[in-house]
C-alpha cells in the first residue's frame, strides 16, 4: 500500500542552535543581506545610467546582479526571521514554492555565467567580429535562453520532489527547502529521484563549469599574441569572471554531483552558495574593473549635485 501524503508543514532546524549565538548570527546575516541587495542594486543602477557601460558584458552583468539579488532574497529573509522564532515552520506549499524559486534563480545564474564566458570569448578571440556577432538581439536572446533554462531545470527538480509521499517525520535539517533534505524525508525509495537530481543539477553544473574552464583556457592562450596593455585589461576582466565561476560552481558541484546523502558540511556550503556568493559578485566585479568604478563615481557625483540643488 502506498504511503499517504499527510505532511502539511515542515519544521526547519536552521543553522544556529546555540541561543547565545543567535543574535550574533542575526546581525551577521542581516548585514550580509543588506550588502547583497545594495551592492547588486548599485551595479544595476550604474549600468543603466552610464553611457560608458553599454557593451554586452555590462548588459549581462546587470542581469547577473538582478539574479543574485533575487537568489539571495529567496532564502536570506526567512533565515533571518527564523532566528527569533522558536518553531521554524514552513507550509508544504511554501516549501515546494521555495524549492522551485531557489533552483529557478540558481539555474538561471548557471546559464548566465556561461553566456558571459561566451561573450568574453568572442570579445577577446574574435574582436573584429564582436559587434556583428553580439548584437542587441543576440544578447537579449541569450538572456532569455538563460531564464528559460533556469525555469526548465527548476520545473524538473520540483516535479521530482512534489510527487514523493511525505508521511512523517517533517523536520528538515536545513534552513530552507532543498531537494536533498526533502528526499531524506520521503517515505518511499528515492534512489531514482536522487539519480535524477545528479543528472539534472549535478551534471548541468559540471558541464557548464567544464565549458567555462575550457573557454577561459582558450582565451588565456589567445592573449599571448596581444600587446601588454590589451593583455592586462583582458586578464583583469577574465580574472573577475573566473573568481565568480569558482566560488559559485564549487559548492553546487559538491552539493549535487553525488548520491542523496547528507553531510554535516552541507549547510555551511549552501550558506556560502546562496547567501555569501551573491554578496561577493558585485565586490569582485567592481574591485577589478576601472570602468565600473569610474561610472559609480560619476553616478555618485550626479546624485550629490542633484540633492544639493534640491536642498537649495
From TrEMBL:
Keywords: Cell membrane, G-protein coupled receptor, Membrane, Olfaction, Receptor, Sensory transduction, Transducer, Transmembrane, Transmembrane helix. Pfam families: 7tm_4. Gene3D superfamilies: Rhodopsin 7-helix transmembrane proteins. It is found in: Cell membrane; Membrane. The chain crosses the membrane at residues 20-45, 57-76, 96-118, 130-156, 191-223, 235-257, 269-287. This is Olfactory receptor. The keyword Calcium does not apply. CDD domains: 7tmA_OR4A-like (cd15939). It is a multi-pass membrane protein. Belongs to the G-protein coupled receptor 1 family. Residues 39-285 form the G-protein coupled receptors family 1 profile domain. GO terms for molecular function: G protein-coupled receptor activity; olfactory receptor activity. GO terms for cellular component: plasma membrane. InterPro entries: GPCR_Rhodpsn, GPCR_Rhodpsn_7TM, Olfact_rcpt, Olfactory_Receptors.
Amino acid at each position: 500500500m502506498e504511503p499517504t501524503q499527510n505532511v502539511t508543514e515542515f519544521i526547519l532546524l536552521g543553522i544556529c542552535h546555540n541561543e547565545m549565538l543567535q543574535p550574533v548570527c542575526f546581525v551577521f546575516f542581516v548585514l550580509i543581506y543588506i550588502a547583497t541587495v545594495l551592492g547588486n542594486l548599485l551595479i544595476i543602477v550604474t549600468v543603466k545610467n552610464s553611457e560608458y557601460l553599454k557593451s554586452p558584458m555590462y548588459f549581462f552583468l546587470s542581469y547577473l546582479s538582478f539574479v543574485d539579488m533575487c537568489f539571495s532574497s529567496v532564502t536570506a529573509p526567512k533565515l533571518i526571521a527564523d532566528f527569533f522564532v522558536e518553531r521554524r515552520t514552513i507550509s508544504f506549499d511554501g516549501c515546494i514554492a521555495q524549492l522551485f524559486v531557489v533552483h529557478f534563480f540558481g539555474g538561471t545564474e548557471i546559464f548566465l555565467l556561461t553566456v558571459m564566458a561566451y561573450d568574453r570569448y568572442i570579445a577577446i578571440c574574435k574582436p573584429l567580429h564582436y559587434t556583428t556577432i553580439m548584437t542587441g538581439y543576440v544578447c537579449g536572446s541569450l538572456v532569455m535562453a538563460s531564464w528559460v533554462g533556469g525555469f526548465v531545470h527548476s520545473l524538473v527538480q520540483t516535479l521530482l520532489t512534489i510527487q514523493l509521499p511525505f508521511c512523517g517525520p517533517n523536520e528538515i535539517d536545513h534552513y530552507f527547502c532543498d531537494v536533498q533534505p526533502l528526499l531524506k524525508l520521503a517515505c518511499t525509495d528515492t534512489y531514482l529521484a536522487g539519480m535524477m537530481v545528479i543528472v539534472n543539477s549535478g551534471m548541468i553544473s559540471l558541464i557548464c563549469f567544464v565549458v567555462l574552464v575550457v573557454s577561459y583556457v582558450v582565451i588565456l592562450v589567445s592573449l599571448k599574441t596581444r600587446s601588454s596593455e590589451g593583455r592586462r585589461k583582458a586578464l583583469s576582466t577574465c580574472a573577475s569572471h573566473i573568481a565568480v565561476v569558482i566560488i559559485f560552481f564549487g559548492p553546487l558541484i559538491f552539493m549535487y554531483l553525488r548520491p542523496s546523502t547528507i553531510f554535516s558540511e552541507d549547510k555551511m556550503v549552501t550558506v556560502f552558495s546562496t547567501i555569501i556568493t551573491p554578496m561577493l559578485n558585485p565586490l569582485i566585479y567592481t574591485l577589478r574593473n576601472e570602468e565600473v568604478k569610474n561610472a559609480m563615481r560619476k553616478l555618485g557625483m550626479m546624485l550629490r549635485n542633484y540633492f544639493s540643488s534640491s536642498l537649495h
